[in-house]
Design a protein that fits this description.
Elements: H1 6-14, H2 21-32, H3 46-65, H4 67-71, H5 83-91, H6 94-101, H7 105-116, H8 119-126, H9 128-138, H10 149-154, H11 160-169, E1 183-186, H12 196-213, H13 224-236, H14 257-272, E2 285-288, H15 290-297, E3 301-309, H16 315-318, H17 323-326, E4 330-339, H18 361-366, H19 391-395, E5 401-407, H20 411-431, H21 447-450, H22 461-469
Antiparallel strand pairs: 1-2, 3-4, 4-5
Helix pairs in contact: 3-7, 5-20, 7-12, 8-12, 12-14, 13-14
Length: about 475
């Protein structure tokens, strides 16, 4: 149904003595072009907000009373729950959240806090700092100062072949706007595995983050026994681009959720942190207009992956005899564009994200009503000016559907990257944007010894990785 003043605005437009070609083209485009669009769900329904506020209040009390035992740090270093942690709980799927806290409420919450404490560092390495590092490398001059040999050995270099492949797959155009000369942007930032140090950090944080965000992980897990055998075969032949038999996509068994998470984490470890530069592939890239690439880096919008669109069966990936049939066979990943919630105005910081006894579900749910895609006539939107809204906003809105092409055998890898991106940007936006990361260090020391990684109770991080690698 049209807004009350729409027809009045249209009448005034038609009554003008003259209009510019740009104005006429804009109106013609809006009236004649109907982009693919699907309904969206509210990111935080009011009924879910009520339940999540109760859980957060319990988490806050436990965090304060057991800060030293949870972190190994003195009480003088106590800080309230970080906005990223609050946002993580708010953004978690309600079914996943209920499953995570379990029946044994106090002990389950205690373990859950340990997992949540890794989220600020995890979000930081996946957002604007990492993406800016990626983006700046696109702008480097061809003539560079010579680098030391050991520096070259420490960092992976970009694969021009993979970049060219992504440009070809996207027809050398932005997948959203259709404009030419796009930037090739990484979904999971290249900087996360460009060096052994960054690769190891990402690997460390991934396990706990996955336990918070992908507890059920239905699209990236399969039969545990057969998949474990497949993963072992990958390690035996590392030169075969990690093989593809670990990319499986069948329904999960909710009775074995911890094992399913282990499987999902191992899946992501192999495709994102197995070795330096491992994810510098066309399946981890997407072509975007330069402006959209920057807005994506700042979390102003995100892509919600809706699955595979086209001829594709998981069996093609699980059966080695079918592997040859996958080469050169392509499918499409279906994406839904979402402008993210905006909690700040132009030139301002978002108010601190807190939860108190007086917090009302309606207040939290209403945080999602204003987005970066809105046309604010008061000029408060840091993305679009009130009277100079760019053509970008006329051509894309929340709910629009887009597609990216990928080889069948790499479809699950791209889906995994997109699911991580979708979860991370939602958390960042509701926490207050990149400014919410200003006080987040590179690595809280207490995480190594005190974190119960995916049920490995009493096992240190070093011991756990040795167990995995063995």
């Amino acid at each position: 149904m049209a807004e009350p003043d729409f027809f009045g605005l249209l009448d005034r437009f038609l009554a003008r003595e003259s209009t510019t070609k740009m104005d006429r083209d804009a109106l013609r485009r809006i009236l004649t072009i109907v982009p693919p669009h699907e309904p969206t769900n509210h990111l935080l329904p009011v009924d879910e907000a009520k339940e999540k506020i109760k859980i957060l209040l319990k988490l806050q009390r436990l965090w304060k009373s057991e800060f030293t035992s949870l972190t190994g740090m003195d009480e003088q270093f106590f800080k309230p729950l970080h906005p990223i942690i609050i946002a993580t709980v708010m953004m978690m799927d309600i079914i996943i959240l209920r499953g995570r806290i379990g029946k044994c409420f106090s002990s389950a919450l205690r373990d859950f806090l340990r997992y949540l404490s890794v989220m600020p560092c995890f979000i930081k390495i996946l957002t604007v700092t990492a993406r800016n590092e990626d983006y700046s490398s696109l702008l480097e001059l061809e003539v560079e100062e010579p680098k030391l040999e050991d520096e070259l050995e420490r960092k992976a270099t970009r694969d021009d072949y993979e970049k060219a492949d992504r440009e070809k797959l996207d027809n050398h155009r932005c997948v959203v706007l259709g404009t030419g000369s796009p930037d090739v942007c990484h979904i999971i930032p290249f900087s996360l595995n460009s060096s052994d140090e960054s690769r190891a950090n990402f690997e460390k944080y991934l396990a706990a983050a996955a336990d918070c965000l992908f507890y059920r992980a239905p699209e990236c897990v399969g039969d545990l026994e057969s998949t474990s055998e497949n993963m072992d075969s990958v390690d035996e032949n590392p030169s075969d681009d990690l093989d593809n038999s670990d990319d499986i996509d069948v329904d999960s068994d909710e009775d074995d959720l911890p094992a399913q998470v282990d499987l999902f984490v191992n899946h992501c470890r192999k495709i994102f942190s197995k070795k330096k530069g491992v994810s510098d592939k066309s399946w981890n890239q997407i072509c975007l207009n330069s402006q959209l690439g920057l807005w994506w880096a700042y979390g102003y919008f995100a892509f919600k992956p809706l699955g595979v669109d086209g001829e594709f069966t998981p069996e093609m990936l699980e059966m080695p005899s079918k592997k040859a049939e996958c080469k050169g066979v392509y499918t499409r990943i279906k994406l839904q564009f979402h402008w993210m919630p905006r909690r700040k105005d132009m030139g301002e910081k978002a108010p601190p994200l807190t939860v108190t006894k007086s917090s009302r579900p309606e207040e939290f749910s209403s945080m999602f009503d204003k987005t970066y895609g809105d046309l604010d006539t008061d000029g408060s939107n840091p993305v679009f000016a009130d009277d100079r809204r760019t053509s970008v906003s006329h051509e894309v809105e929340t709910g629009n559907i887009f597609y990216v092409k990928v080889e069948n055998r790499y479809a699950n890898r791209m889906l995994a990257a997109l699911r991580i991106q979708w979860a991370v940007i939602k958390i960042l936006s509701i926490a207050g944007g990149v400014e919410s990361l200003e006080d987040v260090g590179d690595h809280p020391d207490y995480l190594d010894e005190n974190l119960d990684w995916l049920g490995h109770r009493g096992t240190t991080l070093r011991e756990l990785f040795k167990k995995w690698d063995d």
